[in-house]
Amino acid sequence: MDQNLKLSFPGGLVTKTDMGDFILITDYPEDRGGTNISFNPWRLFLSSILTCQGVNLAKYCVANDLDYKNIEIELESLVEDNRRDPFPEYHLKVSIPDDFPKEHIETMVEFFNDCPVVNHLTKLNPIVKTYVSDKLVSSMERSETVKDDRK
Question: Which InterPro entries does the record cross-reference, listed alphabetically (predicted)?
Answer without folding.
Answer: KH_dom-like_a/b (IPR015946), OsmC/Ohr_fam (IPR003718), OsmC/Ohrsf (IPR036102)
